């Protein structure tokens, strides 16, 4: 474990907590893409499938984190699609998730470390996570704005994988550890946030709201 | 097989 990975995971936890709090406090999921949250839930379940395959001793923090990620993302989907369904902006959350899931699944079968079920699921989860935020960014471009709290969520979510890139550089240098698939997908994922990062740094930090087109 | 590639990150 290194500082980058630690802050990356904390940033990821913060993102999940911010979104949950926003939906729970405002009792509304306006401006939130349900599809992105569904894709994240699929990513966690397919990536941490080992939790379901054999009992894991919960004293291990990593296992606890995995359970938190899975339960929090499923609960977020429950809030969006059931509890606060009336506030779900389905018309603007219109990016076809199949256009993200099918290519990720196909690519996972073509480019992977080992052709076995667990490894293919893990690879699928990595590829899917790289593009999972697209419905959310698409929704913001359709509505033309993002609530400040949603901007903070996106900033934390984007920062998590950006910090992981620093973690991979660190691990390459000190542990000569390289996970090419995760690195390439992580770089693609972070690049997708660049436009948002620019808006966040230039607008939200100054207390303004993000309104598109910028 | 100990060379089993373990993904040790979340």
TrEMBL record, chain A:
Q: Transmembrane ranges?
A: 36-55, 67-84, 96-115, 121-140, 182-201
Q: Which GO terms describe its molecular function?
A: ER retention sequence binding
Q: Which InterPro entries match?
A: ER_ret_rcpt (IPR000133)
The entry's localization annotation reads:
Cytoplasmic vesicle, COPI-coated vesicle membrane; Endoplasmic reticulum membrane
UniProtKB keywords: Cytoplasmic vesicle, Endoplasmic reticulum, ER-Golgi transport, Membrane, Protein transport, Receptor, Transmembrane, Transmembrane helix, Transport
Respond yes or no to whether keyword Transcription regulation is given for this record: no
GO biological process, any: protein transport
Instruction: Classify the protein's membrane topology as the record does.
Output: Multi-pass membrane protein
Organism superkingdom: Eukaryota
What Gene Ontology terms describe where this protein resides (cellular component)?
A: COPI-coated vesicle membrane; endoplasmic reticulum membrane
Q: Can the keyword Transport be found in this entry's annotation?
A: yes
Q: Which family does it belong to?
A: Belongs to the ERD2 family.
What the entry lists under PANTHER family is as follows:
ER LUMEN PROTEIN RETAINING RECEPTOR
This chain belongs to which protein, by name?
Answer: ER lumen protein-retaining receptor
Instruction: Write down the species.
Output: Oikopleura dioica (Tunicate)
